[in-house]
What we know:
Its main location: other. Keywords: FAD, Fatty acid metabolism, Flavoprotein, Lipid metabolism, Oxidoreductase, Peroxisome. The model has no long low-confidence stretch (mean pLDDT 95). This protein has helices spanning 11-19, 24-32, 35-52, 65-91, 99-108, 116-129, 132-143, 292-322, 341-376, 383-411, 423-433, 440-459, 470-474, 486-513, 518-524, 526-552, 558-578, 580-586, 591-608, 612-617, 623-626, 637-646, 657-667, and strands at 149-152, 168-172, 177-181, 189-192, 201-210, 213-223, 236-240, 253-257, 260-263, 272-274, 280-282. It is built from 23 helices and 11 strands. The radius of gyration is 27 Å and the shape is globular. The N and C termini lie far apart (54 Å). It has 671 residues and is an alpha+beta fold. Among the domains are: 148-283, Butyryl-CoA Dehydrogenase, subunit A, domain 2 (Beta Barrel), CATH 2.40.110; 440-617, Butyryl-CoA Dehydrogenase, subunit A, domain 3 (Up-down Bundle), CATH 1.20.140. Helix content is 55%, strand content 9%. Ligand LUOH5OJ7 binds at residues 76, 79-80, 83-84, 102, 105, 113, 115-116, 118-121, 143, 145, 151, 153-154, 159-163, 193, 288, 291, 294-295, 297, 300, 304, 383-384, 387, 436-438, 442, 446, 449.
Amino acid sequence: MTKGTQADVNPDLKKERLKCNFNIQEVTFIIDGGKDKTLQRKKIEDVALNIAASIDEVPEECLNLKERYDNAVRKSCVYSNIVKNELLEITGLEALGSPGLRRTADAFFKDVSPFMLHLGMFVPTIIGQCTPEQQAHWLPKALEMQIIGAYAQTELGHGTFIRGLETTATYDPATEEFVLHSPTLTSTKWWAGGLGNTANHCIVVAQLYTKGQCHGTHPFIVPIRDLDTHEPFPGVKVGDVGIRMGFNTADNGFLRFNQYRIPRENMMMKNAKVMKDGTYVKVARHEKLTYGTMVFVRVTLVMEAAFNLAKAATIAVRYSAVRRQSQPKPGEPEPQILDYPTQQHKLFICIATAHALQLTGLWLWRTFEAVLADMRKGDTDSLPELHALSSCLKAVSTSDSAALIEQCRFACGGHGYMLSSNLPLLYSFVTATRTYEGDYTVLLLQTARFLVKAWEQAESGKVLTPTVAYLACAAAKEKVVWSDSVDGMIRSFQAVAAGKIAACAENIKRLTKTGTSLEDAWQLSTVRLVAASEAHCRAMICQAYWHEVTRLTASCSASVKIVMEQLATLYLVYWALETTGDLLRYSTICESELNKLQLKYEELLALIRPNAVGLVDAFDFRDEILHSTLGAYDGRVYERLMEEALKSPLNETSVQSSFHKYIRPLAKGKL
Length: 671
Ligand SMILES: CCCCCCCC/C=C\CCCCCCCCCCCCCC(=O)SCCNC(=O)CCNC(=O)[C@H](O)C(C)(C)COP(=O)(O)OP(=O)(O)OC[C@H]1O[C@@H](n2cnc3c(N)ncnc32)[C@H](O)[C@@H]1OP(=O)(O)O
Ligand SMILES: Cc1cc2nc3c(=O)[nH]c(=O)nc-3n(C[C@H](O)[C@H](O)[C@H](O)COP(=O)(O)OP(=O)(O)OC[C@H]3O[C@@H](n4cnc5c(N)ncnc54)[C@H](O)[C@@H]3O)c2cc1C
């Protein structure tokens, strides 16, 4: 954070910081995943942010579309050099996935870098889908930025249904080449970040044909532009998809092929190969390993959701400590809006959710690494569980994060609507994460497939994998006894999930017994399947969050343990109150217990109140990363709003030319 001198800090924020009764740094270490991670992040920030501080002369949002893109490319090149020459020096290749790198990128770009997909998907796909020889060829070029790549899977006609993609890659043994072709308008690749004008290479997912047979979708590395002139190669038509709600500097593009040839070796051959004579050889032990990059990105998106929500919460809580409004008690000064319980209700769940998602995300990352280690030994047994886990966690975390960022904007009143608050841009960025890398509903339905199967296994007394082990107890189908202890609440959330999964399984069984096909019975049950999957995910987040808080605070100071537990309890109680209908159905909770729960929630808000600013300070965002007039460390909200307003091009002259061209002629009846 940029602390400046204490004298510059808004007096209300100063007082808030004096009230804080826990060690902020200890909480920062927990959120970052350990003291070493915090120190590494800060080192990276120190290097990168010195340069970022003076990177923009004019605010990004004041530039026109083309200028914004050019400016984003300029900054991406500066940033790439820092990554290559400085950050990789500090931490080696590990820097690429480090929170420090992710955070510092935000100091350079308010919107999105056109290189994001290069680092976010092109490089990971090379690592995950190429043979060691192919990696040795492509990876150094990509890391040195000698080539810039995009990931083009989605088409104009299909995003979700990958098996329905239309682009073809047909092997020609005579020349040992693949011929890429886009047979229809709807087969045009669409949406790939960095593709429109920036990338010279692209990972293309296409239907592989060899010896007259289709073997389904496979990834290929495709050069699309000349490295010197940057002109698209003959047979390649590429461009920008048009103006979007956000991501306008991300250069999302379209791509069409007309019988375009690439060497056989450009097929990414870790999981399947085509031999010189055209023989197709399957290498992978699991059908869906070609979907590996998507699983990887879904896993990372859970922490991405936490990160962005933490930024919004920091902005809104600091602003709410500075902002004073209304007069609930006659004759008394206007209170800080943070003192209103309704404001606390809007904001403390944002802090708690950021913690919940960050700690669950770190746990998911460790699970992902364990599954990868198993797969390196040839064991793919845990892949279905990882797919189910990452699908629902990606769906719920991105959806919650987007909704709560919007809530933070509402919590900032009119000033939250200013682009300079950074809340609108944060929202438009995060709401896209609910759609990309697998739409919310679609991914919850993927998890539901796993849950229904697990339910059937539970009913037949089979041993269940860890994340669904709770179904074994629930197979007895009795209402769970409600208790407002943490364990009691988690048990109840699991009972709700189990009850909903059981109801889905029963409904499918009932329908199929009466002659409905299994596919139709599934479709007729999808509304409840999505709800069951979400309930399962919520129970899992509650369990993982509480488990991680207990584990990570075991050796912390007492005050940190208390505040972390208060937040985690708030998260559980909040969701119990949000889902009272479900609890009434699947647990023994009654009216008086619901009243008790509401009181407990209100008590927690009051307990957290004095630590609210300390808790957001613990996210440790430097001002350069927050980019917010409302959320800066010093709380000089009104001064910053005025300073930013004066940067608007509309304030460059006191009279606009449109006055002379239109308004005056209109007033004089001469238009
Ligand atoms: C040095 C360089 C410096 C540069 C500096 C630059 C600065 C950069 C700045 C910052 C860097 C930060 C980077 C970090 C951020 C990362 C951001 C990334 C941004 C990403 C943008 C978006 C990209 C995309 O959107 S790509 C496209 C994604 N598309 C999708 O997700 C499509 C969704 N659809 C599907 O996944 C599938 O089609 C499906 C799962 C819905 C259905 O597939 P299917 O039809 O084939 O399967 P079935 O439904 O029939 O199921 C069959 C069976 O398979 C199981 N299954 C399905 N999927 C999987 C899987 N993935 N793994 C395992 N198993 C799977 C399924 O469960 C079924 O099993 P059953 O047992 O039930 O039969
Ligand atoms: C900002 C942004 C960046 C992107 N970047 C990339 C990129 O770099 N590379 C890339 O390849 N792609 C990218 N995408 C595309 C993205 O992955 C897809 O948009 C996403 O996977 C959703 O697919 P779709 O657009 O086909 O939606 P659709 O599948 O058409 O969804 C439309 C609606 O239909 C519903 N629906 C679809 N199928 C089902 C089903 N089986 N059951 C129930 N409901 C269903 C959905 O829930 C949704 O409500 C990006 C998208 C965005 C918005």
